[in-house]
Amino acid sequence: MTLQEQIRSNRFRSGIVVFGFALLLLVIAGLIGVVLDLSLGVFALAIALAYGIFALVRSRSMIAGMTRAQALGEKELEPLRRLVENVSIGAGLAVTPEIRLVDDAAPNAFAAGLRPEKSYVGVTTGLLRTMPKRELEAVIAHEISHIRNRDTYLMTMATVFAGVIALVADIGFRSIAYGGRSRKAGGIVVVLAVVGFILAPYAALLLRMSLSRRREYLADAGAAEILNDPEAMALALRRLELDTTSLRYADASTAHLWVESPTDRVDSERRGVLAMSGLFNTHPALPDRIEALEEVGGFRLPERLPDDEPFAAALGLT
Amino acid sequence: MLGLSIVIGVVVVLGVVVALGYNRLVRLRNEADTGWANIDVQLQRRADLIPNLVEAVRGYAAHERAVFDEVTRARTALQGATTPGSAANANEGLTAALGRLFAVAEAYPDLKASENFLRLQGDLTDTEDKISAARRYYNSTVMHFNTAIQSIPWVLVARPLGFRDKEFFSAEGDTAPPQVSFSQTT
Lengths: 318, 186
Fold this sequence. Notes:
The structure holds two protein chains of two kinds.
Chain A: H1 3-36, H2 38-67, E1 69-71, H3 78-90, E2 98-102, E3 109-112, E4 120-124, H4 125-130, H5 133-148, H6 151-177, H7 187-227, H8 230-242, H9 264-271, H10 273-277, H11 286-297, H12 312-315
Parallel strand pairs in A: 2-4
Antiparallel strand pairs in A: 1-2, 3-4
Helix pairs in contact in A: 1-2, 1-6, 1-7, 2-6, 3-5, 5-7, 5-8, 6-7, 7-8, 7-11, 8-11
Chain B: H1 2-58, H2 65-80, H3 84-106, H4 109-113, H5 115-150, H6 154-157, H7 178-185
């Protein structure tokens, strides 16, 4: 698949996602309308639309806020800027994405933005302190391929829609739970509706996450192609695997954006059995991703990682 | 009647297939053209850095005229190159000439320590990194395009439709087997 074909397929999928979410939303609003009250259904739909539009317009700064990502100053971290610029030239991007810095010891990175020209790459200070140049380039290339493939666009949409569905389902659920009277329908329908309201947000979440996981493999492959160096990406992933620091501000609503899932440990405790199936993970396991790269590149990672100097040294960070 | 509608159906399907395929070739060609434009920008940037660099070195080593002439000639050759192959060769030529210029600079500690010279050297290294990044992208787009027009069925009609193989950005000798470069280093 060439790049343009991949982008088109992503656009197509985005369309399907939008359609699927719209359908799900209509069904829930319809359920509310039928089981409870027609005006409540319309009200829920209106709230959903308003919230959705607001979230899409504000997504850029909302995500920056949720991840605590700070814009860089005018001449700050020039070598990092150059590195990002070079990677985005290698990716054939017309505009180099902005860089935002997250002050966090955990090595991680993410990309956000609805359009490639308006996107930014967020990196943690921990990433700069952990990764040598070659591997940092691979991580940046991974994020840039998310931007180039329009994954950030799709994921931002999916994030917003999943939020909207959860909100509307919540309205429905609360109305039933706290004294909402069912006008027309009998007991069975109410039970079904309750089950529907409870499950709906999970359906949305599941869809969002399955989208995210496939994309991680694609972005890894994209990074390998951009740098013509699959081993660098695999080395970076291994280094992330060995690191056990967790992001301080990790949050389920932004988990899918990062290069490595920031919430694994928290999540698996919280979700118990469900976590076992892997259905609710935002990212495929790192060893699986490394293996996929080894297959494409026809190499085996060495036992020991190269102990090159982290890129932070070149930036004068301590 | 049935026969006619089958014929019409086949013609319509063929027409759609041809249109989609043609559009794909056009898209691939545009991608490669964009890739080439990206390289061109960086090559121009590199060429623009040369006069300042030569002036900086001349300030300390005015008598090294032969080296300056060589660098200037290599720069002119790069700016005059029109095809990807010749530009790659000219770019290699400039690299070789710059190598000699920097060898000259080695002999002048004051020059090597001067801020202006260090900045120019940093910019040059950065531009070279950017050229190699742009080259990776361009060469991959060329590969996709060439593969597309060399594959059946397009190989039969690509030429009449005006699609020609694109040239990779690679200097002569770039495609040599790796052992050659190994023997050079030992």
